[in-house]
Amino acid sequence: MTLGISGRIARATIASPLTPLMLIAALVAGLLAVATIPREEEPQISVPMVDVLVAADGLKAADAVELVTRPLEAIVKGIDGVEHVYSQTADDRVTVTVRFAVGTPEDDAALRVHERIRANFDRMPVGIPEPLIVKRGINDVAVVTLTLSPRPEAAARWRQSDVAALAEKLRLELIKVDDVGLTYVSGGAREQIRVEPDPEKLALFGVTLEQLAAKLRGANRAFLAGGVRDGGTAREATAGRTLAGMPDIGLLLLTTRDGRPVYVRDVARVVVGDAPEERRAWSFAPDADGAWTRTPAATVAVAKRGGANAVVVAEAVRARVADLQGRLIPDDVRVEVSRDYGRTADDKADELLFHLALATVSIVLLIALAIGRREAMVTLVVIPATILLTLVASWVMGYTINRVSLFALIFAIGILVDDAIVVVENIARHWAMRDGRSRAEAAVAAVAEVGNPTVVATLTVIAALLPMLFISGLMGPYMAPIPVNASAAMLFSFFVAMTVAPWLMLRLDRVRLLASAHGDAPDGGKLGRFYRRVAAPVIRDRRTAGRFLAAVGIATVLACLAFPLKAVTVKLLPFDDKSELAVMLTLPAGATLEDTERTLFAAARIAAGLPEARSAQVYAGVAAPFNFNGLVRHAYLRQSPEMGEMQLNLAPKAARGRASHAIAVDLRDRLRALPLPPGSVLKVVEVPPGPPVLATLLAEVYGPDAAARRAAAEKLKGLFARVPYIVDLDDSWAQPRPRLRIAIDQDRLEFLGVEQGAVYDAIAALLGGVPVGYSHRGAEREPIAIVVALPKDDRAWTERLAATPVPADAIPGGNRVVELGELVRVTREEGSTTLFRRDGRFADMVMAELAGDYEAPIYGMLAVDDLIRDADWGADGPPAVALHGQPRDESRVSILWDGEWEITYVTFRDMGAAFAVAILGIYILVVGQFGSFRLPLVILTPVPLTLIGIVFGHWLFGAPFTATSMIGFIALAGIIVRNSILLVDFIRHRAGAGKSLRETLLEAGAVRFKPILLTALAAMIGAATILFDPIFQGLAISLLFGLASSTALTLLVIPAVYVWMRDDGRPLMP
């Protein structure tokens, strides 16, 4: 018999001293990779987003779009790598977000935007300041957040500014930790020295706000004036000093009135305290009695550098904080680790490594029971060697240890052992023949016998997996570790099986303790006889074979009908089980910070009733530290008084009986009792299981003009509300913000000789405040800002405010000031709604989540589409609905479904294409192996049969068919074809032996039944260890039930196809 490449490899290595050295080298390299590869919870997807923030003071939204937004969009749209350009234009401000293609280096993206805008800034209108360009990427997401708050008994002694100052000191300490990236403090007002002018006293003494601010600036000045010679010593001369506090500021002389000095304290009140900023943070945690108490808080967010190990960084941060307890951090302040992706990554990695070890041991026990102890010992060496080599390859390719890469290894463990099982089982079978050959000769012959089909079978699995590497969009890099690691594992498993396995079999054959208690019968033994009893009636004649094939075909069609009948639902990815939830609140425009706080406090009290809730942080007027979901949704831009967020921390998974999604559904139901003003939006936001989107259900409305778009969007939002499982409705335009228009009377201005700039400065100082410098406090203490500003409660347009003096040059009677109220006219008006544009087109967005009977966007879309068709849209008829791509005809209203649907569409489209490429690749490989165009079609016949088991498994578990389920289906194509090849190759080898076709088929099935069953059981064992993971359950179900059904059917369908097509009553010829 010809040896082929496999036999020649086995012959060269079965007695070579290099074989054990290669094995040892593989183990050592793998262990080094395990110790070196960074650990993370999720794959780090590079989705650079660059925000271009432009101040367009005085421009209404409609004008800002034409003057600022359109030119900016045109500038950045042509940048290499830009995928989408979004813009939000409001009165006085413009935000343009440039989203780059997945995988673009983050720093390159920011540099490209910056260079392009600087090079084309001449296209911007006069008076528009240079924009602020902010890059945000995955490495800016905090891996650790630390919430500082005083203990309940000490809360009265701590102000918001005190906690914020302590948080800032802690942040400065944490940046000393190696590999720490972006750090920032969220929540808490800063301390400031505030000079609060009294408009009536300013008018009484004839002092203007500009005089007050100028005096403070001049008195708070210190600078290096030069150098002097003093007693033969050269000294630097410093002039001036900075103001120290209330006494220094209050006693500053402003002017004289009737010969009496006028000091700052005569016209203003000097206050040292919290800045009147429209942002605050609070912590809710149970006290000694178990009741939730509220204390002021501030959160330190710590990200890591790109490529750093999240576990190591998080451990170092926690250690640094523990070291600072009692020194920098007082005993009456508690530090809560409100987010720790390093610890969760480590826990997840440890859990999956345990599952990996469990799967390995289970497969080894299976081999020990089915074949023998010696073969089990070989498998015990082959599996770790292959996995460690795969980790080396993963390390070289730049992947990290995360949940997806480890799931890939667990998924691969069941198929990477296939080559070794086939080889050792065939060696054991050849040794059981006892035909006079030496053990080495029989082993080489056994390897050669299954070598060529094993090569092709291995390549078919790789051909099935590798096309998934080219899935586009966000899901591509998220799932990339699965095809990469699994393909690498298959490649390494082949070489290990052909080199190490025969060498080990030969060496362990000398160990009596490992001698097999039972040899493999050449005819298949008991399993072979069982197969004959089952298969013989199926292939008794052409008619019975045809009936069997028809029944299997009908079962496959019925399985496919489960999807349109909703017996099995579909979803991109199921919800994960996390230990955090968020509640996002947006009150109507014009709501105060206190309104936001009251609503969030009520929400926190409701959340405290959840048995799984452990603590919460409330952020009013300021964004909480953002996660990957917040990065995509731009949650860090939520900085208005009417916006707030509650971060709810849950008990660890092991300490609670419900998954976080069930808790989120419960919380959403409880929050319905919360009284909210009309126009409010309250959302329960979960950490997405995969790539995040702006909203799960998102409809973009396009049209010829703003009125048509808005009318259609409002109607569509009403249709959303009619579907019971569509929740958390929101839109992109929001309510107009109430505004106060202060217009200058130009005639009075000219008559009184008042400078227009002086009026504007007075208005800005009264309503916004004027910073005049800092009070420096020496080393280790942060300087305090000195600001001229009214108290927040006094910032209302009243007669008292209107009495503020403004300098004038032409006042009759010699008075040099005039009241502000004489120069301005004040009217109340509504601002503009926000204008949203995507890739140069105006759009209004309607957003929602899904919870209840159906949680995939496709079901919400279908329900809304039915309502759209039945609704009255007037003479123009219903809008056109698109599933993908922006509309080309903007002359009529149209709707584009986006959000999670877009990722679902792209993912399943690309997976379908990958499956087609996989089938084509497998077909070509099999044609090359067998030299026939028809035979590969027979081999591919069992592939669709996997759907019978897959659909039944999903129905049985009540699980949706997800992207990971589809990965399992695609992978099964390679695995099942591998089994088919082993069966068909044996049939071809037995051809020409003078036996009838049915006897040849029964013999092939009987002999190959055991290795095929063992490889299927090995893959099923690997899948069983991840069956209850919320994300990869679909993959496990596909492998478990798909393998169970298709393995059984493969051993019957292929013989039935042979009989149905070729049964002529004569012996089978080659």
According to CATH, what is the class of the largest domain? Mainly Alpha
Structural class, judged by helices and strands?
Answer: alpha+beta
Number of discrete domains: 5
Termini gap:
16 Å
Please identify, by name, the CATH architecture of the largest domain.
Answer: Up-down Bundle
What does this protein look like?
- The longest helix has 31 residues, at 403-433.
- The chain has five domains: 1-36 and 371-522, Up-down Bundle (Multidrug efflux transporter AcrB transmembrane fold); 49-136, Multidrug efflux transporter AcrB pore domain (Alpha-Beta Plaits, 2-Layer Sandwich); 191-233 and 245-274 and 738-768 and 782-789 and 797-830, 2-Layer Sandwich (Multidrug efflux transporter AcrB TolC docking domain, DN and DC subdomains), CATH 3.30.2090; 528-576 and 897-1070, Multidrug efflux transporter AcrB transmembrane fold; 577-687, Multidrug efflux transporter AcrB pore domain (Alpha-Beta Plaits).
- 49% of the residues are buried.
- The strands form eight sheets. Strands 1, 2, 3, 4, 21, 22, 29, 30, 31 and 32 form a ten-stranded mixed β-sheet that branches. The chain has a six-stranded antiparallel β-sheet with strand order 14-13-18-19-17-20, covered by helices on one side.
- By secondary structure, the chain is α+β, with helices and mostly antiparallel strands.
- A hairpin with a 2-residue loop joins β29 (835-838) and β30 (841-850).
- It starts with a helix and ends in an 8-residue tail after the last helix.
- Pfam families: ACR_tran.
